Sequence to fold (524 residues):
Amino acid sequence: MKKIFVAIACFTTIGVFAQSKYWQQQVNYKINVSLNDQNHSLKGSEEIQYINNSPDQLNFIWFHLWENAYKNDNTAFAKQLMRDKKGMNRLRKFKDRGYIDSLDFTVDGIKASIEVDPENIDVVKLNLPKPLLPGGTVKIQTPFYVDIPQYISRSGHDGQSYMMCQWYPKPAVYDHKGWHQFPYLDEGEFYSEYGNFDVTITLPSQYIVGATGVLQNADELKQYKEIGKSNISSSSRRNSMKYIVPASATKTLDYKGENILDFAWFADKDFVIRYDTMQLASGKTIDVFTYHHHDGNKNWVNSTEYVKSGARAYSSYFGEYPYPVVQAVEGPKNEMSGGMEYPMITLITSPDASEPMLDAVITHEVGHNWLMGILATNERTHAWMDEGINTYFQFRYEAEKYRYNSIFGESIPREVKEKSAEEFQAMVYNALSKIPMETPIETPSQLFAGEEEYGLVVYIKTAIWMYFMEQELGKSNLDKAIHAYYDQWKFKHPYPEDMKSTFEKELGKDLTPYFDLLKKKGTL
Fold:
């Protein structure tokens, strides 16, 4: 989630690609990694089972090496930051750059060569020793070493607090439109293949870890739950139960996750753990964890309630949450983001957020489990399908729960907050529609002129577009279409034409005029 910078003085009272032909690749991971918290590094090994479900013979596989994006000022990430003064100031303060190296790929036990993309050092081509035929599977292995960068953009360390995101070698997506081997950007997110993850993390025993997936270490998990339950019932913001550090100098934690796109983990010696459970409408019970700092935002005492509230809301908006655990982690302040989402866990970087704002940010990021995690769109090319639709539902959530909107914050007059949720939303969108937004919604992330325009168009203009359809088609009809879209495309890679086709089939209506608005400059 990007921050949206909007200057407003006051709040006025204002198908195509048939499912029968659909295919996608499967990428399963076994990763073993060790953290050295003295020199801030990772040493690891990776085994990937790559299953070619495409109708095409593959002679190579593109890989992302995201950590190399931070390495120097010649990367796409650095060049994007250098477009404006604010970004240049961030880059100037970025001393501990980091990188990934020590790769030595084998494919089915045979040494394989790599070619670095001439334009982007965070993208490499793995040449396969022999062609991978349709329906075939290969086992790819490599060691790797990560010099963990200073935390500046999603991944890194803040002292001995670790935010490990985009940290391992990862195959790019190959779909019916070809390879998507783009470089890392600050503004512009990701596109990933589904798979199963088995990740072991070895680190000093004092660390508390929150990660994608389910922790397999029964004793560690039991401690987290006991401490977390105690903190839920305690008014203290510090651990009311002390974490019992294992006698050994290090510990190895094992996490597993199925049918997910990515794996992120967060480690700190001073995390306050909160734990609860929630029951979904089907009767399924899932675990809810949050991790925060005792000297951080005081509103984290309510964090498990925010996570549960957000997960319930999005389960009603789209379809039931499918994973066994949902989590949120408090991170350091980040100038480019209020939070960043990963499967089953999200990093929240909003230290000054008020109660409704923190609830909104956590809910937005938890919501990405649906829009990115389950409906796995190409976020770099069609950012609106992820961030914009998510913002529309975030605004709905805020209005229904608080009569609040995170763009306007505390400037909303009391008499507006006393309106019904529908009237409140109408006034919010009337005010938002007056903000100049020239760039079309359907613009690839890397083509936006700057951070502000990206935030305005991808987030707000798309939310306005969704609200326009709500008003034109009827809220119940739009909700019906969203549920159908979720049911048909969950755990797949939908494109705009797939969303349009599903909506049209569900509603029995030609929606071309609405989807044409995505390419319209200026106001809608």
